[in-house]
Amino acid sequence: MGKGIKRRKDGRYEAKYSVETDTGTKRRSIYGKSREEVAVKLAKAIEDAKDQTPKVKPTELTIKEFLEGLHDQTVRHAVKRRTYESYRCIVGRHIVPAIGNVKLRELSTRNVQDFYGALLNRGLSAKTVTNVHTLLRRALKQAIDWELITRNACEGVSLPRRESPEVNPLNRQQAKALLEASKSDRLHALYVLAISTGMRQGELLGLYWSDIDLDNRMVRVRRALVTGYGQTYESTKTKRSRRSIALTTIATEALIAHKDRMSDEGHSVEGDSPVFVNKVGRHLHPKNFMDRSFKPNLRKARIPDTTFHAATRHTAASLMLTKGVHPKVVQEMLGHATITITLDTYSHLLDGMGGTGATAMDDALS
């Protein structure tokens, strides 16, 4: 609990939430002397909202009214900001235009199957359709819990087969070329840290100087910068994502130089000050970084257009695995929730390592 709770200038804590009334959606506020007090009050308010009678009779409630009304209120306060924005995007872009006017109690498995087929025919990927399915299935399960419907129309639907996305990391020469190209960039340390640790872009932009331990050559990953309706910091995705990573020599040296440069520019390099900021000392906007730094450096290094994720995170994993680093170590560095994710994502890199295993067994048994 506690998401969206802010401290006011008068010392009290405040949380805002939405309720459905006869005149439409209304925003209400809850106040308390502590964050914990407001969190308890907010939880009770959300529970009370669940018990409220819908503006329309349950038999007349449409998919649109349910997803954008009652269910939206629950999701808004139960998930992180980025997840909620993704929810709104899927509902508004894919579900409501297609089946929004269908009555909740009349939605059939055939309706859902045809809906998914239409999404695929529009050119949407199997992954996107699966994401739509996951959201809709959970929403309908909530409708069952609230006794609005008796069965989940998503059960029994056939989903498209998801192809594993092709991972195209930079090779060793390209990685070195990108680091060389970024040497004159004021954010050179970001590139070094990204390629040497495999940290996600949001995690890099979410670093505070208090997360950097140059004496012991460690970086602590605790939060990520997320964008959408503005920018904010959130705790990392999973428990595994919260991790400490040993710094390489080149990363340590780059961070020392970066710290000196930021200090010379007049920016704070202590405590909860962002490590990577723009020229006026504010946190970097990912799009601006991509347009003004990453893409120009790609061109300078003569590397074909690619994503930051592929050029850094995938490259870090590729370099480690091809050097014989154990997949479990790679998993922990990348912050994957399970080693299965690591193995599934980079299985093609492991395929060519079978000969190494055979040679090792020959040596062991000879």
UniProtKB/TrEMBL annotation:
For bias kind Basic and acidic residues, which ranges apply?
11-25
Molecular function terms from GO: DNA binding
CDD domains named among the record's database cross-references:
INT_ICEBs1_C_like (cd01189)
Q: Which residues form the Tyr recombinase domain?
A: 165-362
Q: Which Gene3D superfamilies does its entry note?
A: 1.10.150.130, Intergrase catalytic core
Q: Which GO terms describe its biological process?
A: DNA integration; DNA recombination
Q: Where is the composition biased (Basic residues)?
A: 1-10
Name the UniProt key words of this record, in alphabetical order.
Answer: DNA integration, DNA recombination, DNA-binding
Residues in Core-binding (CB) domain copies: 57-144
- Region feature (Disordered): 1-26
SUPFAM superfamilies this protein is in? DNA breaking-rejoining enzymes (SSF56349)
Residue intervals passing through the bilayer: none
Q: What is this protein called?
A: Tyrosine-type recombinase/integrase
